[in-house]
Write a structure and sequence with these properties.
alpha/beta, 25% strand, 18 strands, binds xanthosine-5'-monophosphate, 9-stranded mixed sheet
Length: 514
């Protein structure tokens, strides 16, 4: 049976993922697609799904700008319901001949909309609705054949609909929680207007993913690089359910794992009904990194060496299929976002090998968001401490040691990292945080220890809140917790004389220091 799907056409707005996630929260599947998707592409998606609705996202441009992104008009002739949000709302008005101009006053933040017609998209809502706006341009007059559904003080056409066709526009953002009844508006669209069935569930997903892997691999052998992170761990359990002993999971210990982590991974995965190989590759990694200080070179060396170790293991096993833990945001970010700049080379242990020959590369989690992966992990019985772990970069602590990596520095950053984890968890703060860790800077500074001058390392503490790691804010955690972290680090790690807290958001900084 095919799932219903709502496509979110991406105009570069920061809320695309949020729209898709809100729809999925209603058990309807949703994907983000390029804004200029063609009718052919929609038809080919229809072979796998029932395309039930199109949502045009917000975006930073003005519809009049020279290179303003547009839709292909022919997609409006398919009879699929369309909902434009913010830029999408203005674009629909513009394309159908309405009047769109810069507003006298830009609206940003909470606004009250007066609803004059509740027809379908606003069904069940009040006369006045608290909505969240962020726009410079405004629709001043609806195109012919359309009617106004709501207005605000500065926006005469804050919501509209076509008189006969299922085409709607909302100037505000229903996906943002500050729009009080935003979920109801999205539900009106997906259920009342598009007629979707709420059939997207993680239980259904597991069954389908297992059947799919069984069908592809048959009696063949598959291999997966298991890092112990949530994505590769979940992909491993899913693959194990499908393939049992025909699966081999390879865990490469590059020596940059956190304290006790290799042991935890071995303990968790070695007796689970599939083949598990742990490779101790610490020496070869540290040897190759000797004298290397440039962060990108470090990342490249670690990535390459990782592939080499993995290839050697794969050759021993003779696996024909490679399974990877790629998840939906990874796929979207590396896929169609055509203009995104490379900021750093991510070595994901799942971003594997380019020149190895496999009959197929299978990515069972390719359609899931992180929170969905967590649900699947829980359903498959992954231990809680692994399900709710903070994300950890493929190159591990190596990107948290600035400058050359040495055995001594690895040992310092491991101890400091453990202290940060223990104190944050003791304070019960972990659930509200995206990541919390220590970085060993290569700055030395003067201190006093036991009445003597000491000249030692500076450790930086990085603690951030985030949803998908694309943006992040430094966390305003209580000073008492920072104080305990700092005191313990300087007391328990003799080489450290100073601890600093990183108070930079992303952007402009990235989460990791390298
Ligand atoms: P940045 O530092 O780019 O990190 O803001 C964003 C998120 O990605 C994690 N990260 C990585 N994850 N391989 C990974 O699998 C990598 O090479 C890598 N580098 C950074 C980082 O911890 C944060 O959650």
């Amino acid at each position: 049976m095919k799932l219903d799907i709502i496509l979110v056409l991406d105009f570069g707005g920061q809320y695309c993922h949020l729209i898709a996630r809100r729809i999925r929260e209603n058990h309807v599947y949703s994907e983000i697609v390029p804004h200029d998707i063609t009718t052919r592409e929609i038809q080919s998606l229809n072979e796998r799904y029932n395309v039930k609705g199109l949502i045009l996202s917000g975006g930073p441009q003005s519809v009049y700008a020279e290179n303003a992104p547009k839709i292909r008009r022919e997609i409006l002739t398919l009879g699929i319901p369309v909902l434009g949000l913010c830029y999408g709302h203005q674009l629909l008005a513009y394309l159908f001949g309405g009047e769109v101009k810069p507003a006298k006053t830009k609206e940003f933040g909470v606004t009250y909309a007066t609803v004059v017609n509740h027809d379908l998209i606003l069904e069940g809502l009040g006369h006045t609705e608290k909505v969240w706006m962020s726009h410079g341009d405004t629709v001043f007059a609806v195109p012919e054949g359309f009617e106004v559904l709501a207005y605000t003080e500065n926006t005469p056409v804050a919501a509209f609909k076509h008189r006969t066709k299922p085409i709607y526009g909302l100037q505000w953002h229903p996906e943002v929680i500050h729009t009080e009844n935003g979920m109801q508006m999205l539900q009106n669209f997906i259920f009342k207007i598009c007629g979707c069935e709420p059939e997207w569930s993680m239980k259904g997903f597991i069954g389908k993913a297992v059947d799919e892997m069984k069908a592809i691999v048959g009696d063949g052998k598959a291999i997966i690089a298991l890092s112990g992170g949530i994505d590769s761990s979940t992909a491993t359990l899913l693959a194990a359910k499908a393939l049992g002993r025909n699966l081999t999971a390879v865990f490469v210990d590059h020596g940059f794992m956190r304290q006790n982590e290799p042991e935890l991974i071995k303990q968790t995965f070695s007796e689970m009904g599939f083949n598990f190989v742990a490779v101790d590759a610490k020496n070869r990694f540290i040897k190759r990194l000797k004298g290397v200080t440039d962060p990108e070179t470090k990342r490249k060396i670690i990535g390459e060496e990782f592939i080499r170790v993995f290839e050697e293991e794969a050759a021993k096993i003779g696996a024909e299929y490679l399974i990877q833990g790629t998840i939906y945001p990874d796929r979207i970010e590396s896929g169609f976002r055509r203009f995104s700049e490379k900021i750093k080379t991510h070595h994901n242990v799942a971003g594997l090998p380019t020149h190895m020959r496999f009959k197929a590369i299978i990515e069972p989690l390719r359609d899931l968001y992180k929170d969905e992966v967590r649900t699947v992990a829980e359903m498959l019985g992954l231990p809680k401490e692994l399900v709710h772990r903070q994300p950890f970069p493929g190159p591990g602590l190596a990107v948290r040691i600035i400058g050359e990596i040495t055995e001594e520095k690895i040992s310092i950053v491991k101890k400091a990292d453990l202290i940060v984890r223990e104190e944050i968890e003791k304070a019960g703060l972990q659930e509200s945080l995206w990541q919390y860790f220590a970085v060993l800077t290569n700055t030395k500074s003067t201190g006093v220890k036991g009445d003597c001058r000491a000249y030692g390392y500076t450790v930086a503490i990085r603690i951030v809140e985030s949803r998908e790691a694309m943006t992040a804010s430094f966390a305003k955690i209580p000073y008492g917790v920072l104080e305990r972290i700092s005191t313990r680090i300087t007391n328990e790690i003799p080489q450290v004389t100073r601890v600093v807290y990183d108070v930079t958001h992303k952007p402009p900084a990235t989460i990791e220091w390298e």
